[in-house]
Structures are given as structure tokens and as C-alpha cells.
């Protein structure tokens, strides 16, 4: 019969039977694959259980350093919490980010949710804010702003020149 080379008697085309001879997935049936997948997921979850995600929030405000009029309908504000403890030749590790579209006014409240386990004693963490108008970066924070130096950080964004 054409097209059924290596297929076992009674097997449907597309089933697992005869796949080993035809170069398919081997002799493993669907139930065996499901069992292995379930075992793998259990191992993965067991590893996560030892250090589960613990949400923590960093709240603050983004303010304009100098009063100005922005077209709020086309404005987007991005606030990031980054780990600056990485080596100098590596980029900072992003821990949390919030994007706020079409803000109603400045100062603008933000709330960054991050994993408490990601924060290490003696680490160096900063907050960055950027303001985009019509898709173009117009304002941003300058310098290093310590994320945990005050209870409610206020980020002042200034024009990019």
C-alpha cells in the first residue's frame, strides 16, 4: 500500500504507531509523554516553592522639573526600577517597569511591583523615568536616583537637550 511504509496493522495515518521506523518521535506514546511532562512540571514547581515570588511595591511621583505644557493625549511615561549592582560592562537588570499612557496631569503617581527576593542587602538600585511625546523621548531623569532612599520617591524629569 503506498504511503504506509513502516505503519503497523490497524494504525491510523498520523498516529504514533510505527513512528520509530518512519523516523518520527520514537516509541513513546502520548500517555508516556504526558507523564514525563507532568513529572518535569512538578520538579520545576518544587524548585520555585523554595523561593516563591513575594510582591513588593515602590510608589512615588513623576514631576516636571520646570513647568511646561505637554500634549497629554499623546504623552507616555515609563518608570523603571533597575539593579545597578551588575558589572560595569553589563547593562543594568530591569526589576520592574510601569508604562502610563495619556496622563491627566503632573505630578503623576506610579507604583512599581517587584519581587522582594530580587533586592539584596548592599545592592545598588535606581529608578528611572522617561516621558515620550508623540513617540519621541522628550524628558527624562538625570543621574542616579536611589530607589530606596525615601519612602515616596519623587522623580523630576527634565528636557533632553
Automatic annotation (TrEMBL):
Specify where the region named Disordered lies, as residue ranges: 1-29
The UniProt entry, under Pfam families, shows: YscW (PF09619)
- Supply the name of the protein: Lipoprotein
Which organism does this record belong to? Aquitalea palustris
Amino acid at each position: 500500500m503506498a504511503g504506509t511504509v513502516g505503519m503497523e496493522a490497524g494504525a491510523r495515518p498520523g498516529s504514533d504507531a510505527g513512528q520509530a521506523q518512519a523516523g518520527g518521535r520514537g516509541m513513546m506514546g502520548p500517555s508516556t509523554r504526558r507523564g514525563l511532562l507532568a513529572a518535569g512540571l512538578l520538579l520545576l514547581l518544587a524548585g520555585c516553592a523554595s523561593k516563591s515570588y513575594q510582591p513588593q511595591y515602590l510608589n512615588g511621583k513623576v514631576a516636571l522639573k520646570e513647568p511646561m505644557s505637554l500634549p497629554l493625549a499623546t504623552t507616555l511615561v515609563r518608570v523603571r526600577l533597575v539593579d545597578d549592582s551588575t558589572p560595569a560592562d553589563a547593562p543594568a537588570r530591569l526589576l520592574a517597569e510601569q508604562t502610563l499612557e495619556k496622563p491627566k496631569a503632573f505630578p503623576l503617581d506610579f507604583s512599581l511591583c517587584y519581587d522582594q527576593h530580587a533586592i539584596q542587602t548592599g545592592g545598588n538600585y535606581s529608578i528611572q523615568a522617561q516621558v515620550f511625546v508623540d513617540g519621541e523621548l522628550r524628558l527624562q531623569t538625570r543621574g542616579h536616583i536611589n530607589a530606596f532612599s525615601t519612602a515616596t520617591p519623587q522623580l523630576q524629569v527634565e528636557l533632553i537637550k
